[in-house]
Give the backbone structure.
Amino acid sequence: MLGEMKAVFSGVQPSGNLTIGNYLGAIKNFGAFSEEYKSFYCVVDLHAITVTQVPAELRRRTYETLALYIACGLDPAKNTLFVQSHVPAHAELGWILDCFTMFGELSRMTQFKDKSAKHAENINAGLFTYPALMAADILLYQTDVVPVGADQKQHLELARDIAQRFNSRFGDVFTVPEPYIAGTGMKIMSLQEPTAKMSKSDENPNAVVRILDPKDDIIRKFRRAVTDSDTVVRFAEGKDGINNLMTIYSCFTGKRLDEIEREFDGRGYGDFKLAVGEACADALAPVQSEFARLMADKAYLESVMRAGAEDAARCAARTLNKVKKKLGFVI
Ligand code: TYM
């Protein structure tokens, strides 16, 4: 709780062009909290540099991610939208929480294991302590709910453990956050390797549908999606490719899986893939045009991020001061 209100916090890394996984698993669900929660949505650039970034691209994607938040329906008047590095309290509390996070806990994080396998030449300390910074993001705002995709569940559990550990030593300092993992869209899979998560850093362009892809590309990628040798559109074990396409179609159209099975009864995969591509492209079209309009107005985006950082910094300072007092820092 932040004062009288419940709080929601989530973040997206500006580390690649965002995918429909980011959209369906996370961003699309953020707006639902705006009316009843004090809402913080952050572009987590400090997290992004745990892997090597090209500075000009990082800068561009930071603007783009903020613009996408707004284009996906987050009204800056109702949501605090900001950039992580603009609020130094994140790095400060991140360091403090490093000292309350165990080496063994961090070693068990699957994202760390995956990323260190993928970036063997750059297994830096930031990549290792990434989840403690993520806990700081969340705990600074006395967050009640964190909407994320399924891949962030383990990080959320660690954030809860860190909060409880700190509270049990120093009293009720942090709200212990709950994850909010949306049912259907929580794990969108790669179109080329449907047992692996769709990831914005995937190097195979056909595996990933990006929020900003033109309609033709979207249709083509779905047409090429890996399926199986069966011909029936049915949600079943062993049909990972079709299950993923049905999930995506369900998210974009609101139809249930049994309705989708009936809709495509007696029709082949070709028809189905085209329908998924069209539903996806149609749903993204308004987001894309709003995005283009926003990106043409950098001054507006800068005013949003500046106001967001000011509000976030004010809220974060209250928690950080309390933490410092508890620790015995002279303030
Ligand atoms: P990131 O930038 O990898 O992803 C942003 C959000 O998108 C979700 N997501 C997916 N959901 C469904 N299917 C997929 N294929 C898929 N891929 C990504 C992620 O679960 C996430 O919700 N560590 C976070 C960023 C972060 C954060 C935070 C999140 C930093 N601090 C505090 C919440 C609270 C990350 O790397 O997200």
The mean pLDDT is 96. Strands lie at 6-12, 37-43, 79-83, 145-147, 178-180. The longest strand covers residues 6-12.
